[in-house]
Amino acid sequence: MVVGARRAVPLQCDRITSMKWLNVAPDEALGKILVHNIADAEGHKALHKGTRIGESDVESLRALGMNEVSVAALEDGDVHEDDAARRLALACMRGGVTASDASGGRVNLLSAFGGLVKVEAESLRQVNLIDGLTVATLRHDTLAAANKIVATIKVIPFAVPEADIARAEVICGAHSGIVGVRALRSLQVGVILAGSEASKARVMKAFAPAIRARVEELGSNVRDVVYVPHQSRAIANAIELLRLANTELIMIAGETSIMDREDVTPRGIVEAGGVIEHYGAPVEPGNLLL
Questions:
Q1: What is the total count of domains within the chain?
Q2: Which of 107, 140, 183, 254 could form a Cys-Cys staple with 89, CB 3.0–4.6 A?
C-alpha cells in the first residue's frame, strides 16, 4: 500500500490477470473490488474484502474517515471470481451433484443423494495446474451421504483471465466433468451364518443385527438370514437356495475366521459354482475378508 497518495497508484504485485490493483480515494473506488477487510473504530468488520464497492460502500468509507483504499479494477478479458467459480463448477459437475451459490470465489458441489463419489483424476490434475483455479474433491469411490460436500471450487484471485476459464472448461468437457456421485443399487440381500449348534444364539446375536443395520443404511434390504452348520456342503446348499430365491447379494459370516482358500467357507462357495476372486484385505480389523 502507498500511504498518503493523492492519486490512483498501482500496487506492485505479481498478477495472473490484467486486473489492476490500485490505491484510490473513496469516490474513485466505486465499482471496483475491495482488496482488504475494512474495520470500524471498534475493530468490527465493516466491509469485507472482495466486495464490489457501491454507492453505500463509498459513504461507509467516508464515514470511517478513509482517505484512501486499496482496490482491484478488472480489465477487459478478466472474469470476476464468482462468475469464474460458477463456470468452473458447472464444467466440473457430473451426474448426482448440485452446486451452491457462488460467494467469495467459492462454490461447493454437494451429493444429490447417497452414493459413491466418482472423480476423473487426470482432468482434476490438469485443472489444478492452471494458476488461480483450484478444485478439491473427496477421494474417488468415497461413500457420501446425501447433501454432503463432495468438492469445493475456489478461484484464488479476485478475477482470472477468460482464456484460463475457457481452458478449464475444455479440460472438464473432455470427460463430461470431473466429479459426480453414483447412486448405490438397492439389492435384496441374503445372509448365511455358519457355526455349531451350540453357538447359534451367540452368532445370530453378534452378526445378524449388525449386518442388517449396515445393509439398510446403504439402501438395500436383508430378506433372509440362514444359519447352517460350519460345513462346506451346508454352505453350498444355502447359497443355492438363496440364488433360487432371486437373492442379488449373498453375504457369509460365521463362528470362525477364514484361514485359507481351502477353508470350509471358500470350499462351500466353490461347491456352489462360485469362484474365489481374492482372499485377504488391507484393512484392520477385517484382513481375513474373502
A1: 3
A2: 107
Half-sphere exposure of 192 (CA within 13 A, CB side): 26
> What is the residue range of 207's domain?
188-271
Where is the domain boundary, 183, 217, 252? 183
Three-state secondary-structure class, residue 246: coil
- 214 φ, ψ to 5°? -70, -40
Amino acid at 228: V
What residues contact 283, with CB distance under 8 A and at least 6 apart?
Answer: 289
Are residue 56 and residue 131 in the same domain, yes or no?
A: no
* 1-17 pLDDT per residue, tens: 333 333 443 433 344 55
Residue with cell 488461480: 132
Rounded-to-integer distance, Cα 85 and Cα 169, Å:
11
Torsion angle, CA of 81/96/139/99, rounded to 10 degrees? 20
pTM of structure = 0.75
Cα–Cα dist 3/213, whole Å: 65
How far is Cα 220 from Cα 214, in angstroms, rounded to an integer? 9
Structural domain contains residue 242: yes
Helical pair 264-271 and 232-244, crossing angle rounded to 10 deg: 40
Q: Among 35, 61, 76, identify where a domain stops.
A: 76
Residues 161 and 173 in one domain: yes
Q: How far apart are CA 290 and CA 279, in angstroms?
A: 4
pLDDT in tens, 98-119: 999 999 999 999 999 999 999 9
Longest dimension (CA), the chain: 93
155 lies in the same domain as 96: yes
Query: Radius of gyration over alpha carbons of the chain, in Å?
Result: 30
Structural contact between residues 76 and 18, judged by C-beta atoms closer than 8 angstroms: yes
φ, ψ of residue 188 in degrees (nearest 5): -90, 120
